[in-house]
Design a protein that fits this description.
The chain has 222 residues and is mainly α. The chain contains 11 helices and 4 strands; from the N terminus they run H-E-H-H-H-E-H-E-H-H-H-H-E-H-H. A two-stranded parallel ribbon has the order 1-2. 15% of the residues are buried.
Length: 222
């Protein structure tokens, strides 16, 4: 995991999509950035020394302009593997809850709107479910980053390469600890299953409330 690796090397805390899952209210500022093209980045990343994953990656050009000294790490992988991972994690996450549940949870509504605006509509133009289209966007993103970021500020690597290229690029010694191999896809899928379970519990409570109300009305009328 690049997040854990950066934190081990002293570039933490590292901002990740997990931060938004833990605090959905963070979505509002990202949504504002998507709609207006900018936001108070210093305030958004206050307390963090690095950032990876969505939604940060969608703003790499803006962030590179705002933080010109920043180093950019572009991780690449087999496109098919990338697509399957994204399909099973963040795409599934964004489709868990019915839209009307947002009426009871403003933060859930904002997070869903943020994900749709930045990722599914903004980046993938509503065609993520079409695998060929999604992979074409993924590959174009790699080309765009290579073209945009100065070579001296860019590292293109596969996570499987481990510490050496990352440490050389950041100018830090290779640590004694093994490179973290935390499977973020697996972690995300576990969190999604918990959310799906909470969704089932929510529906069960609603059903019980409706049955209870119906029973009360029946008793009252008779």
């Amino acid at each position: 995991s690049l997040k854990q690796a950066l934190e081990i090397l002293g570039f933490g805390p590292c901002y990740h999509m997990f931060e938004i899952l833990q605090k959905p209210e963070r979505s509002a500022q990202w949504l504002d950035a998507a709609k207006h093209g900018d936001t108070d980045w210093d305030q958004l990343f206050q307390g963090y020394a690095s950032a990876v994953d969505w939604p940060t990656v969608a703003f790499y050009k803006t962030l590179k302009q705002h933080y010109p000294e920043a180093k950019v790490i572009l991780t690449v992988r087999d496109p098919d593997s990338w697509y399957q991972s994204s399909l099973e994690t963040i795409y599934t996450l964004s489709r868990i809850f019915p839209k009307w549940i947002a009426l009871f949870s403003p933060y859930t509504k904002t997070m869903g709107e943020m994900i749709d605006t930045i990722i599914w509509h903004g980046t993938f133009k509503g065609e993520f479910e079409t695998k060929a289209s999604a992979i074409a966007v993924y590959q174009q993103h790699i080309n765009n980053v290579r073209a945009c970021v100065p070579a001296e500020d860019l590292l293109v690597m596969e996570i499987a390469e481990g510490w050496q290229p990352l440490c050389d690029f950041l100018g830090v010694p290779v640590p004694d600890t093994p490179f973290p191999r935390i499977n973020e896809t697996s972690v995300m899928k576990k969190r999604i299953r918990l959310l799906q379970l909470s969704n089932v519990v929510f529906w069960a409570i609603i059903a019980m409330a409706i049955l209870s109300l119906g029973s009360s009305i029946h008793h009252f009328l008779h």
